[in-house]
Specification:
Radius of gyration: 27 Å
Distance between the termini: 33 Å
Number of helices: 33
Largest sheet: 7 strands, mixed
Shape: globular
Structural class: alpha+beta
Strand content: 15-25%
Strand order of the largest sheet: 1-2-3-7-4-6-5
């Protein structure tokens, strides 16, 4: 329910480009918590504006004072009470998103309560909480009945609430969001519970490197502006605020003239506008609450902040003060960021990550907020021994821009990448809605994407030189570092020695046995190509762990006719992507490009797949990066937990293999190791699926795939893959690992069958939804453990598919409460095993699975992946079409039976914390 930094489209966060998003979005949304129904705490006649909720529909609707229509079926309307409504019709899939953003909230706008995090507290209490019309429990059940996904986030300058839903439930979602915005009931028990959750959230945030890095950046760059304050607030300040003051803040800020109400999806504009006007019928315009912010003085000296955290690698940010969103230098600065770090052929990535192996990852961003001057930054992850040379090299690249013009090729490539991004970032209704809201609130127009890209195209190489000279000033450098524990003491001792220290498909079969799926979708001018071959972890062993992933990473590093640089240069220049990866059961490739670039992209992909040469120099670079990523697993409590769990599983199951490998296995690999494995075990056309989905002619796609893949030779004897892998746990075990982290992790797992036992596996998924929420907030575990503030997060995961797998119960808590969380998990497992699941709970679980499945299959990339894997695993092309029927066919007896059968077997329990058992 809480969020730290909203996932804006990249024009605001190019600005928080992909590299920072990896940090921050780990914590963007936490889960909605629901409590037991409160029967005596609400006054049914109390409303924000002295209008009974029951009388709302009897009042005349708000007048629509203005209405402006934009391209792409976008409409912006103003109501008489100041409410802004934005609607975009998108009839690609029968889904929609309903959301409302409240301006003049967020941590920078809390006036006399700055530092308390009131906006964040309100988000916790309002989102899904009781209103004067419905209790919290009634709202939860109502959303569950149609499988809606609801959440909220708070940023520096806005609070947003949303519900994603099927088309048929849009009216209900509009009513629910409108009700939250006007008639929150503020039940005391809900207040108390959420304040406990926030306190745990504050504690857990101190173990998340992304949150810590962002907090350090805020505090260092913004020292006078309220931009330095954490969105979640300070616990000592929050404790000084009363519930009445929080409610008063809601009454003052949650007024129509502060709200932007957005609906995107398979909807009718007039119907939405009329309903929103009616839902806000009794709520008048509020007092103008625009906040005048304290300005940030210009930075005049260098700044530095360092924080020690558990782990073995360092995260570094190098930054310079720049401009806000409205400054014309915005466009040149954004292109500088792309020239430096967008794509593998960019200056920093090629030099620092691949050619010289100085960093484990590197990225840049030009953060240009609306409320203050922003910052241009370089962010990188490094091993301690490379810190000094990595910092020097990154700064040398920045300062080079002050004396040399970028090439026309680099500038053209960056412009093409940004234009491509405009299209790729608007594929889902959720992305479209967020873009519309942020564009409108920041610039007054929902069309800022187009204006932004148009202005980018006007930037010259001379302007790039000018902004570099203007802003990349050594005397204004800010350095922020997260370093391993003990680093500061070691550096202090060594100071004198200068030691600083990413319509249905048609099935065709090529003559060589390759199966081709083609699906035409003209919604956006994008083509997505995927290739899947049986392989992955299930072909690896303890001695070869990481081999599949290492192999995949080498496929685009050079072929018989192309260098790795030529491959990455071409994709970067057209704003497309090419990647190869490995999973539990497959090795795969993925291309995403604009339609005009499809033929050439397919040719290069086929060349990589069939003619990869595994060059020695690139092999050495990739080995260094992979070994670095293995070391980095020790930085994450979750990664440590899952690696400990995998190590303890039977060697016969692919879940025993840690996909990225071990230090000793990866160190022992050679180019010949990977080359032999790929050619002998993977390159089998009869075990290969290719999909081409998007704005492409089906005949052309078939002809091109035949041209480039049709000559792949058949194996003299077809490769057979054994999916029947033994996953039985021979005994019940409890393992505890002591770490250096102030976080407690708990995992309990039981063996479950593969997809071959379809009915049982579906029943297990439904049991998961009842007990653990099926990967989303909800279920017994969430209501009990999160509801009491005992855990920060708790989930149930079903990890099974082509081979038998496991059901996993996992939670994050404080070190001192690990044992109590273990006890509670086993209590709920026993509750399921003893058959205490009800028909009502099963019905809700079925709707959740059906709805989530529909919403997870809306983009061409998602559809291509799912249908390709279904075909590869022998489930058939139409398998997904029967999903709803297969869910509905499961009975309560079926669920009780699998709970008893599989939760009565041996278990593997793993816990980690900084305490000895």
């Amino acid at each position: 329910m809480s969020g730290y930094i909203p996932k804006f489209t990249r024009r605001f966060l190019n600005s928080f480009s992909v590299f920072l998003l990896i940090f921050t979005l780990l914590a963007t949304f936490t889960s909605l918590g629901y409590a037991e129904e409160k029967k005596n705490s609400m006054n049914p006649n109390l409303t924000q504006n002295n209008v009974s909720v029951a009388d709302q529909t009897a009042l005349p609707p708000q007048k629509i004072l203005s209405r402006q229509v934009y391209p792409n079926e976008i409409t912006v309307a103003k109501l008489g009470n100041g409410l802004t409504v934005i609607v975009q019709e998108n009839h690609t899939a029968p889904v929609a998103t309903v959301r409302c953003s409240v301006k003049n909230t967020g941590s920078i706008n809390e006036t006399s309560y700055l530092g308390a995090g009131l906006s964040h507290v309100l988000e916790h209490v309002v989102a899904g909480g009781s209103t004067t019309k419905r209790s919290e429990e009634e709202i939860r059940k109502l959303i569950d009945t149609f499988g809606g996904a609801t959440n909220a986030y708070t940023s520096l300058d806005v609070t947003s609430y949303f519900i994603d839903c099927p088309k048929k439930n849009v009216e209900m979602c509009v009513e629910l969001i409108a009700d939250q915005m006007q008639h929150a009931a503020f039940v005391p028990e809900e207040f108390s519970r959420e304040l406990e959750v926030i306190q745990q959230e504050l504690a857990d945030g101190e173990e998340n490197r992304g949150r810590v890095m962002w907090k350090l950046a805020q505090e260092t760059f913004f020292q006078e502006s309220p931009g330095h304050l954490p969105i979640i607030g300070y616990i000592d300040v929050l404790r000084q605020v009363t519930n009445e003051q929080i409610i008063a803040f809601y009454r003052e800020r949650y007024v129509p003239n502060n709200m932007v109400f957005v609906v995107v999806g398979d909807v009718e504009t007039d119907a939405i506008l009329n309903q929103v006007a009616q839902e806000f019928a009794g709520t008048p315009r509020g007092f103008d609450s625009n906040v005048v912010l304290r300005p940030e003085p210009r930075q005049i000296t260098r700044r530095e902040a360092v924080r020690e955290m558990d782990g073995r690698t360092m995260d570094i940010m190098l930054g310079f003060p720049t401009v806000d969103l409205y400054h014309p230098d915005l466009y040149a600065l954004d292109l500088v960021s792309y020239i430096l770090s967008e794509g593998n052929s960019s200056r920093l990535v090629r030099d620092m990550q691949y050619e010289n192996s100085l960093v484990l990852g590197v990225g840049t961003s030009s953060y240009t907020p609306t409320f203050a001057r922003g910052m241009f930054s370089v962010r990188m992850s490094v091993t301690p021994e490379n810190e000094k040379v990595a910092v020097e090299t990154a700064l040398a690249h920045l300062y080079r821009l002050k004396t040399e013009l970028v090439t026309e090729e680099e500038l053209a490539k960056a412009k093409k990448q940004k234009a491509s991004e405009l299209i790729f970032d608007r594929q889902t209704v959720q992305q479209q809605a967020e873009s519309l809201a942020q564009s409108y609130m920041s610039t007054g127009t929902p069309m800022f994407d187009e204006i932004y890209v148009e202005n980018l195209q006007k930037v010259t190489a001379e302007q790039i030189l000018a902004v570099a000279q203007k802003y990349f000033l050594p005397e204004l450098l800010t350095t922020i570092k997260i370093v391993p524990k003990g680093t500061l003491a070691a550096q202090e001792k060594a100071q004198n020695a200068d030691a600083d220290a990413q319509k249905d498909a048609k099935l065709l079969t090529l003559a060589n046995g390759i199966r081709l799926l083609v699906k035409k979708d003209t919604h956006l001018p994008i083509v997505d190509v995927k290739i899947y071959a049986l392989g992955g972890d299930m072909l690896d062993s303890d001695e070869t762990a990481g081999r599949s992933g290492f192999t995949a990473s080498m496929l685009d590093k050079g072929t018989k006719t192309r260098t790795g640089e030529e491959i990455t240069d071409w994709f970067d220049a057209v704003g497309g992507t090419l990647s190869f990866s490995a999973g539990r059961h497959t090795l795969s490739g993925d291309v995403s490009v604009l339609k005009e670039d499809f033929p050439k992209a397919l040719e290069i992909m086929a060349d990589c797949w069939q003619n990869a040469t595994f060059p020695e120099d690139k092999f050495a670079q990739m080995k260094t990066l992979i070994l670095g990523s293995i070391a980095r697993r020790a930085d994450s409590p979750q990664a440590e937990l899952f690696e400990t769990w995998a190590d303890a599983l039977p060697e016969t199951t692919p879940f025993h293999i840690t996909s990225s490998g071990k230090m000793e296995t990866v160190s022992a690999m050679t180019p010949d190791t990977l080359r032999t494995y790929f050619h002998e075990s993977i390159l089998d056309p009869e075990n290969t699926i290719i999909s081409v989905y998007g704005d492409v002619d089906e005949r052309e796609a078939g002809a091109l795939v035949t041209k480039y893949f049709g000559t792949m030779p058949k194996k003299s004897e077809r490769q057979t893959v054994d999916f029947n892998r033994e996953n039985t746990l021979p005994e019940s075990r409890a393992i505890h690992k002591v770490t250096g982290k102030e976080a407690g992790m708990v995992l309990i797992s039981y063996a479950i069958p593969s997809q071959d036992v379809e009915k049982e596996l579906m029943a297990i998924r439904l049991m998961n939804a009842v007990v653990g929420g099926y990967g989303y907030p909800g279920g017994w575990l969430h209501e009990e453990l999160r509801g009491e503030g005992l855990v920060y997060a708790v989930h149930c995961l079903t990890r099974s598919g082509a081979t038998p797998g496991y059901i996993i119960f996992i939670a994050q808590t404080a070190p001192e409460t690990v044992d109590e969380v273990v006890r509670r998990l086993f209590n709920n497992i026993e509750k399921a095993r003893s058959g205490q699941i009800t028909q009502e709970e099963l019905d809700v679980a079925k709707q959740k699975l059906i709805s989530l499945h529909a919403q997870s299959d809306t983009t061409i990339s998602e559809q291509a992946s799912q249908q390709s894997l279904n075909l590869l695993y022998g489930l058939g092309l139409d398998y997904d079409k029967t999903y709803d029927a297969r869910v509905e066919s499961v009975t309560l007896e079926d669920v009780k039976a699998v709970a008893k059968k599989y939760l009565s077997g041996n278990y593997l329990q793993v816990t980690t914390s900084n305490r000895e058992k």
